[in-house]
Design brief:
By secondary structure, this protein is α/β, with parallel strands linked by helices. Helices cover 28% and strands 25% of the residues. It folds into two domains: 4-91, 2-Layer Sandwich (Alpha-Beta Plaits); 105-237, Oxidized Rhodanese, domain 1 (3-Layer(aba) Sandwich). The strands form four sheets. Strands 4-1-3-2-5 form a five-stranded mixed beta sheet. It has a five-stranded parallel beta sheet with strand order 6-11-10-7-9. The two termini are 29 Å apart.
Length: 250
């Protein structure tokens, strides 16, 4: 049976030609018969699209020929059905909304931890420097309810822009620990890690590539319980990246 390749990717990088990039991306995506969403902002690019494997890989090759998106980290999965209903290429103020204009990931990232290193930390119960490891979920509450790392901190966020205020209320609880922020694909936890650094936390990491990369790289997702919500018609993914079959809330 023919399958659809699903890819997601983002990069925080200065983009000055947002309108020109929007027009070119739309034309290239339409030519490849892709569906999904591409967000463009002055702070970077965020995409989640699906299509037949060969034309989608050709689209990604074209995109990465732009030096701003060279070696763009891509997360992949497959589905028997097209998970998106249409193609949208939009210009936004932020590629992930936080309402914190002073937070600029393109100017410098917080430290990142890979999937395999995190799995090792979780197994040993501490980071390599001996501090306790705390998993901090930066996703919305309904996403956490579908699945999360065992014992992760959940501030019951209604939207990502609630994160800075929640951090302010709980920051003292995180001091002296190694805090690993995580989200679905890495984009939210990347911004969250910078906000935590600005709040004076010294041992902050982001999970590189988020939960989807953790699923992809570890295979059996040690320490994870449940499914991971995705924002398309698959609803959520099991830890083997197969569709869970329940459409996500909108």
């Amino acid at each position: 049976m023919d399958t659809f390749l699903n890819v997601s990717a983002y990069r925080f990088v200065p983009v000055q030609d947002t309108a020109a990039l929007q027009a070119t991306l739309l034309a290239q995506a339409q030519a490849a018969a892709l569906k999904g969403t591409v967000l463009i902002a002055e702070e970077g690019l965020n995409l989640a699209v699906a299509g037949r494997t060969e034309p989608l890989r050709a689209f990604l090759s074209w995109l990465q020929s732009d030096e701003r998106f060279a070696n763009l980290p891509i997360k992949e999965s497959y589905s028997e059905q097209m998970p998106f209903r249409k193609l949208l290429v939009k210009i936004k103020r932020e590629i992930i909304r936080m309402n914190q204009p002073a937070v600029r990931p393109a100017a410098g990232r917080a430290p990142a931890v890979t999937a395999h290193t995190l799995a090792r930390w979780l197994a040993q119960g501490r980071c390599d420097e001996g501090r306790p490891v705390v998993m901090l979920d930066t996703r919305n509450a309904f996403e956490v309810d579908a699945g999360a790392f065992e014992g992760a901190i959940d501030w019951r966020l209604g939207k990502f822009s609630d994160f800075p205020a929640a951090l302010q209320a709980h920051v003292d609880e995180l001091r002296g620990k190694t805090v690993v922020s995580y989200c679905t694909g890495g984009i939210r936890c990347e911004k969250a890690a910078l906000v935590m650094q600005d709040a004076g936390l010294s041992h902050v990491h982001q999970l590189e590539g988020g939960v989807l990369r953790y699923f992809e790289d570890t295979g059996h997702a040690p320490g994870w319980q449940g499914d991971c919500v995705v924002f398309d018609d698959r609803g959520a993914l099991h830890s083997d990246l197969s569709p869970a079959g329940v459409r996500a809330a909108s």
